[in-house]
Each structure stands twice: as structure tokens, then as C-alpha cells.
């Protein structure tokens, strides 16, 4: 609960009542222990704000967004990524990131993953394979993050189809 101090500042407190009994085992009085838990409460609130912000960014991004284990297994994927690759979310979560990289792009992808582990971030353009068999040019921007207490890879997957079309049209 929150409380108002003499100086006008609001603090969060925890109140713990303790019943004191007399020698005849009858209730005599109650002692209340009051602890200032403002610091813990603020930490709890601030830890929830980034989580909500993260969820909002994740679901409202115009690009594909994914979180993968270090070995590549998908932990999370937004709907945009699922739609671009042609998979349901459940199907995608049963795959690894490397399953979508065409062989021609796999060497440069592997080099960029090593760079990711050295520097904490990396970006690479690769060709991805969709469920339909179509090839999708994408740019992967990757960062090492902590997710649910474990190190993971956060990726933004930008579809380069329109950019490549504009570049080819100018040539």
C-alpha cells in the first residue's frame, strides 16, 4: 500500500501485524511492523514498463521480428515474420533460423553470426526460403540480448524485395 510521509512524499509500505498473547494465551495486543518497500516497488514497476514496450514493438513492427536461442531455435516470432515466410507461428517455433537461409547465403550468414558473438550485434543480407519455395531477399539485423534469463538473439528481418526492385529499375 502507499502512504504519505510527514514531508509530503509518497512511499510504498508493507504492513505485517503480529498478535501478542498474554500468559493465559489470550490476545493482549497487536504489533505492526511497517517496512518501506518503495525501492523494490519502483524496481518492479520499471521492469514491467520495458516488457510492455518490448511487446508493443514486437507486435507493431512493420518488419519481421524474432527471438532465437543461441543454437537458432525460434523462441518468439511476430505475425509479420510468419506472414512473410508463409508459416503459422506454431510451425515457425518448431524450426531454426538456419532452415530459412539458402545454401548460397549460408557462408556469409555463418560469418555474421560469429561477428554477432564477438561484437554483440551484426547485420547481413541473405536470401530466405519461404514455405511456398519462393526466395525472399532479407536483411537481418541481430543483437545479443537476455531473454527470460538466458542469452538469446533478437532479430529484425527486413524484406528487401521493394528495395531490390527499385535498384534494378534504376539500372
From TrEMBL:
Q: Offer one Pfam family short name for this entry.
A: PAS_9
PAC domain mapped to chain residues: 1-49
Q: Where is the PAS domain?
A: 50-120
| Coiled coil regions, renumbered to chain | none
Does the record's keyword annotation contain Transmembrane helix?
no
InterPro entries assigned to the protein according to its UniProt record, in alphabetical order = PAS, PAS-assoc_C, PAS-like_dom_sf
Give UniProt keywords alphabetically.
Answer: Kinase, Transferase
Which domain of life, per UniProt?
A: Archaea
**UniProt entry tagged with the keyword Transit peptide:** no
GO MF, one term, reads: kinase activity
Instruction: List the PROSITE patterns.
Output: PAC (PS50113), PAS (PS50112)
Q: What name does the UniProt record give this protein?
A: Sensory transduction histidine kinase
Q: What is the lineage of its organism?
A: Archaea, Methanobacteriati, Methanobacteriota, Stenosarchaea group, Methanomicrobia
